[in-house]
Amino acid sequence: METVEPVGGWRIRKSGLVGGLILAAGLLAVGAFFIPASSWVGLGEANAAMAATPAPIDGKRAFGYLETICAIGPRIAGSEANAKQRQMAAEHFRAAGAKVREQAFEGVHPLDGGKVQMANLIASWHPERTRRVLIGVHYDTRPHADEETAPARQRLPFLGANDGAAGVALLMEIANHLTDLKTSWGVDLVLFDGEELVYGRHPNTQGQYFLGSKEFARAYVEEQDRGKPDYQYEAGIVLDMIGGKDLHLPQEPNSLNLAYNLVRDVWSVARQINARSFKVKVGREVMDDHLALNNAGIPSIDIIDFDYPFWHKADDLPKNCSADSLAEVGRVVTAWLARPQRRGRR
Ligand SMILES: [Zn+2]
To answer: Where does the Peptidase M28 domain lie (predicted)?
Structure first.
């Protein structure tokens, strides 16, 4: 039996063991007979023996970035702190050799109806390459620690060390290696704004999710429809809450449904480099920025630890994050980027 319950707007399907097995069996059956037109087609198991070589990711340095970001304070969409973080990241990416652009857009504040200025940040390596992949994270933080039950704790500042800063910090560390990394792709590191400009636990009345990734997807589809751009994204990886201690990264059901082969590729790389936080089992269904990317025809997955005990709590702090977790995910992502690929089917 499965239940879908709204948890701060993330619809989570809790699958029991039986449900998980049925789902896994169903996916196998679907995978055998049906490959979506936009499905990622990587090398898969047949080439699993091909060596995966990660970049020399420095977990301590990544953790330092995480602390620097948290020191800015809460980084809610539309806030000065949010813009400050974006500028800091842009400078870092430029210094690391990227061509950087902002994708500005406007939203409506869910409480007072005022305008909210937001912006995604896109840092591109090898901008001339037409075959591209994107690694995306959200950089805004939730306005309040909604999962706290005591009102006094709900009023504490929500720093989002894992739910926000960890993803940005890891992209900053990955950026340090992208000029030297041997990859055949153009690589875009993307910071999404407005992932959760949401107040309270009733998303229909108090805000919307995924504003940044929806804008990114809308703009990409519009460019494609106009015959521009001449590049295409062949895959997308969204990282969310990948910096907690005791990291658990099962395979997320929407990712399995929408980009099965990409999940298989990434977890295959993880196995090769002995990244033990990547679990070959079906996790909980999560609505996240990968859904908008899939809607735009970019096969995309979400790598997320939804067992993090401080999710949307005041204690989502650096002390509950881990340099080793950041390093492990960074090693898997860079090893996957450096792995020889063939063109995805469209
Ligand atoms: Zn969140």
So the answer is: 120-336
143 C-alpha vs ligand 1 centroid, how far in Å? 10
Number of structural domains (the chain) is 1
Residues 341 and 43 sit within 8 Å (Cβ to Cβ): yes
Does residue 137 belong to any structural domain of this protein? yes
Tokens for 287, please give them.
């609505």
In terms of DSSP bridges, do strands 186-192 and 131-138 run parallel, antiparallel, or are they unpaired?
A: parallel
The answer to whether residue 224 is domain-embedded is yes
What span, in angstroms and rounded, lies between the C-alpha atoms of 52 and 276? 15
Q: Distance, CA 315 to ligand 1 centroid (Å)? A: 13
Query: Distance, CA 196 to ligand 1 centroid (Å)?
Result: 6
What DSSP designation does 321 have? B
Residue 346: inside a domain, yes or no?
no
* Structure tokens given for 109: 């504040």
Q: Assign residue 146 the CATH number of its domain.
A: 3.40.630.10
Query: Cβ neighbours of residue 197 under 8 Å, at least 6 residues apart?
Result: 76, 77, 78, 107, 109, 110, 116, 140, 143, 207, 208, 211
Q: Mean pLDDT in runs of 10 for the chain (346 residues)?
A: 33 37 42 40 50 93 98 98 98 98 95 94 97 98 93 93 98 98 97 92 75 98 86 97 98 98 97 97 97 98 98 97 98 95 48
Distances (CA, A) of 323 to 54, 58, 106, 132, 170: 16, 8, 35, 28, 10
CA of 132 to the centre of ligand 1 (A): 27
List Cβ neighbours of 33 (8 Å cut-off, separation of 6 or more).
none
345 lies in a domain? no
The b-or-e profile of 149-162 (16+ CB within 10 A means b, else e) is eeeeebeeebbbbb
Q: How far is the CA of 212 from the centre of ligand 1 (A)?
A: 14
Domain range enclosing 284: 2-338
